[in-house]
Amino acid sequence: MVKELSSAGRFTFIGSSLNVNRMGYGAMQLAGRDGNKLVWGPPRDVDEAIAVLREAIASGVNHIDTSDFYGPHVTNQIIRKALFPYPEDLVIVTKVSSRRGEDGSWIPALSREELTGAVHDNLRNLGLDVLDVVNLRSMFNVHQPAEGSIEAPLTVLAELQQKGLIRHIGLSNVTPAQIAEARRIVPIVCVQNQYNLVHRADDALIDDLAGDGIAYVPFFPLGGFTPLQSGTLSEVAARLDATSMQVALAWLLHRSANILVIPGTSTRKHLRENLKAATLEIPAGELAELDAVSRQDADASTDRHEHRS
Fold first, then answer.
1. In terms of residue numbers, what domain contains 238?
2. Residue 298, domain CATH
3. Cβ partners under 8 Å of residue 65, min gap 6
4. Number of domains in the chain
5. What residue ranges of the chain have pLDDT lower than 70?
6. CA 131, CA 295: separation in Å to the nearest integer?
7. 220: left (phi over 0), alpha (psi -120 to 50) or beta
8. Which of 70, 86, 195, 216 is catalytic?
9. What is the pTM of this model?
10. Does the active-site annotation cover 216?
11. Per residue in 150-160, pLDDT tens?
12. Got the DSSP string for 158-184?
């Protein structure tokens, strides 16, 4: 499987020696759920979570996305239990700027003290002396990018980088203007925003970042808590003898060479299904059909709006 995974290509984070397979793993789903509290507490099956991580590494995954506010703390502790001491080529990317309320809410945590504490929490729970990449997540709107200056929190991370606690810095949930602001302060190696086959607001941004050698890491590549649904996607998947989710991941890998995918799962069965997307070839005709999906959805949305009006 290692050879098959590498067929999707590799990517080197700009200004670094960090070279990863483009098919990675997102660890958010390793945390549990407590009623309406999502990504909260331990998973129902800790042993299975550990097995998922170990099989991912054995299959060639060397890029894991995580955060200490998943759980909170739980996901990083499971990663450490499963994989420490870490493989030499493993790149762990984490993120900061949020804390969890007792009700499971996601609360902005952008003060100097909160950001510094978050970096140290990640170091401690992962068992590391330095973090490979730390993404600053903009919290002006929890659910989507919203304008506002990120200079103050980013400056804190830049200072922690200078102290040797962080190797590289990335961004999450950000606008093009915020990316430009950030790049005037510190080198940015990756951007992590919501993007998938039907949610494509960042199309132009992806191309701009590719031109500058900056990785784009889509979160919710399979739709997040609401899985992708598209008649075209289902039809193409049937023709290719694949699942809809495999086609959606393969489409992302075809979309641009700077896209790194990080699908998450808490079971080995789904992990294996996801990783097979790395070898799925999508013919040009089917790619064109998939490329048109978001435009069809936009047209349908406009039609519904006009009908209601």
1. 2-308
2. 3.20.20.100
3. 24, 25, 26, 27, 28, 93, 94, 95, 192, 217, 219, 262
4. 1
5. 1, 3, 224-227, 295-309
6. 39
7. left
8. 70
9. 0.93
10. no
11. 999 999 999 99
12. HHHHHTTSEEEEEEES--HHHHHHHHT
